[in-house]
Structure formats: structure tokens, C-alpha cells
Amino acid sequence: MKRGAGGGGGEGREEMSGRENSPLASLVTGRLFTVGLVTAWYSSNIGVLLLNKYLLSNYGFKYPIFLTMCHMTACSFLSYVAIAWLKLVPMQTVRSRLQFSKIAALSFVFCGSVVSGNVSLRYLPVSFNQAVGATTPFFTAVFAYVMTLRREAWVTYVTLIPVVTGVIIASGGEPSFHLFGFIMCIGATAARALKSVLQGILLSSEGEKLNSMNLLLYMAPIAVIFLLPATLFMEENVVGITIALAREDIRIIWYLLFNSALAYFVNLTNFLVTKHTSALTLQVLGNAKGAVAVVVSILIFRNPVSVTGMLGYSLTVIGVILYNEAKKRYK
């Protein structure tokens, strides 16, 4: 009897112990899941950047518009698979012609951003490309003021000074500086900022808001429609050239397929990281991601860097951190 009672007490203690450990186990599992998501986000983002650079510069595949069209085609197909088949997020429908026209406008700007970014990679090292790309907050603030007359606190605008100054310093100290590549990179950065501001303006009503996965589902096919005539006109016989390249080196097909799939996973992992972390965490991770991309690209491509260039990039990153902090504090 006593032994039975003692046994029952032991089982009770085991059950209580299991319940006590359960929240800790869930916390550890949740953190591991978040770390896995961030790792996948970093890997896909940096991977597509480096592979774009390799294809367009080192490998000699000089067709950035066609490459972008491959990306958008993959995003169209994989977005449909993720939403319609795998049910990763609920399907959101386009409710009116006006909403569709707004999405088409965003898609056009998005195309300009990606194509310009890919063109710039033909001429600039990834490290400098990322330094220029870090000035996105500057263009976002400018477009937000011009298009919505929304003013930030004066301290917020002051923090943009090191953002711009850093890129000017980095440009002066960049051994591989190329004016056309620089212009394309600035254009890509400005277009990326314009898209974010336009998205806030055009899809601001509750009935028109789309999460990033559904927005990509509708934007990507429209982008393909925009890019197809541009590819045929500006990159004549690119399909025939690609087939000829594939006969000599079949790896080009695998490079394009893998690169295009990565382009989709950049968007997927960005959505998931945004969903499972806070806005502050996302800002910190985003700033760190650019720095990691710079280091990895220098290690892989061995492009020359100067102390002046690295100081300029560091100043830009510091400015971006201060800008995000000022926006949060004076919101």
C-alpha cells in the first residue's frame, strides 16, 4: 500500500517535471527555429547575390534582363505552389481593376529595381554594391516627403548625413569604381525605396492590403510580361545563345535554375523572418546581413578593397542604425 502510494507520488512528480520542462523545451525549439529561418534568409539572400555576380561578371553570362526574367518566372511558379498547394499563407484575391493596376505599377518599379541591380553587378564588386544599397533609407525618406509630404523629426534627417557621406567616401576609395555600374546601383536602390513608399500609398486601404507572399504572387507574372519584350529587344537571341552555351557547358542551366529558385526563397524567408521576429530584430539582422555579404564576397571573389572604402561603408551602416533608432524614438 505504502509502496503503491510512493509509486503514485513518483509518477506525479514525473508529470510535474514534464510540465515544468515543457515551456523551456518550447522556448529552445522556438529559438532554434528562428535561428534556422535567419540562417536560411542570410544564405538565400547572399547566395543569390553572389551567384548573380558570378554569372554576370565572372562566368560571362551578360544578360541581366533575361536573368531577371528567369527569377520572376520562378517566383510566379513557386509562389503559386506555396500559396495554392502548400497553403503557407491564405490566398488573397485581387478585388478590382484599380487594385490590379496598382499592383502592375508596383511590378514595373520592382522590375526596374531588380534589373538595375543585376546590371550593376556586371561592373561593380558585391562589396561596393552593398555599400550603395545601404543608402535605401535616404531615398525612402526623400520619396516619402515628396510623395506624401510626411515629415520626420529633424534628428532623423540629420542621421542621413553619415549615410550619404559614407557612400561618397566609399566611392572615392573604391579601386573597382565604374561610373555606369554606380549609376545603375543608385537607380536600383532608389527604385527599391520608391516601391516601398508606393506600396504604402497604393495598397493602404484595408480592402487592398496584401501580405508580401500574395503581392509577389501577382507581381511576378506581370513582371515577366514587362521583361519579355525588353529581353527580346535588348538581348537579342539570348535563348539561342543560352542553348549554345548549354551544349558546351550544361552547368549554365543548373546555375540558372538554382539561381532562380534562390531568388524566390529570398522573398519566402524574408516573409517568414518578418513574421517570426520583431521589427527591431529585423532591422538589426538586415544591417548585419549587408556586412556579412560584403565579407563573404571579398573572401570569394578576392576583389581589392581599400581602407577608405571600408571606412566609408562602416560610416554608412552606422548612419542607417542611427536612422532606424531615430525613427523608432520620434515616431
Automatic annotation (TrEMBL):
<keyword id="KW-0812">Transmembrane</keyword>
<feature type="transmembrane region" description="Helical">
    <location>
        <begin position="100"/>
        <end position="121"/>
    </location>
</feature>
<dbReference type="InterPro" id="IPR037185">
    <property type="entry name" value="EmrE-like"/>
</dbReference>
<feature type="domain" description="Sugar phosphate transporter">
    <location>
        <begin position="37"/>
        <end position="324"/>
    </location>
</feature>
<feature type="transmembrane region" description="Helical">
    <location>
        <begin position="63"/>
        <end position="88"/>
    </location>
</feature>
<feature type="transmembrane region" description="Helical">
    <location>
        <begin position="252"/>
        <end position="273"/>
    </location>
</feature>
<dbReference type="Pfam" id="PF03151">
    <property type="entry name" value="TPT"/>
</dbReference>
<dbReference type="GO" id="GO:0016020">
    <property type="term" value="C:membrane"/>
</dbReference>
<feature type="transmembrane region" description="Helical">
    <location>
        <begin position="177"/>
        <end position="194"/>
    </location>
</feature>
<feature type="transmembrane region" description="Helical">
    <location>
        <begin position="307"/>
        <end position="324"/>
    </location>
</feature>
<keyword id="KW-1133">Transmembrane helix</keyword>
<feature type="region of interest" description="Disordered">
    <location>
        <begin position="1"/>
        <end position="22"/>
    </location>
</feature>
<feature type="compositionally biased region" description="Gly residues">
    <location>
        <begin position="1"/>
        <end position="10"/>
    </location>
</feature>
<protein>
    <submittedName>
        <fullName>Probable sugar phosphate/phosphate translocator At3g11320</fullName>
    </submittedName>
</protein>
<feature type="transmembrane region" description="Helical">
    <location>
        <begin position="215"/>
        <end position="232"/>
    </location>
</feature>
<dbReference type="InterPro" id="IPR050186">
    <property type="entry name" value="TPT_transporter"/>
</dbReference>
<feature type="transmembrane region" description="Helical">
    <location>
        <begin position="154"/>
        <end position="171"/>
    </location>
</feature>
<feature type="transmembrane region" description="Helical">
    <location>
        <begin position="280"/>
        <end position="301"/>
    </location>
</feature>
<keyword id="KW-0472">Membrane</keyword>
<dbReference type="InterPro" id="IPR004853">
    <property type="entry name" value="Sugar_P_trans_dom"/>
</dbReference>
<feature type="transmembrane region" description="Helical">
    <location>
        <begin position="24"/>
        <end position="43"/>
    </location>
</feature>
<feature type="transmembrane region" description="Helical">
    <location>
        <begin position="127"/>
        <end position="147"/>
    </location>
</feature>
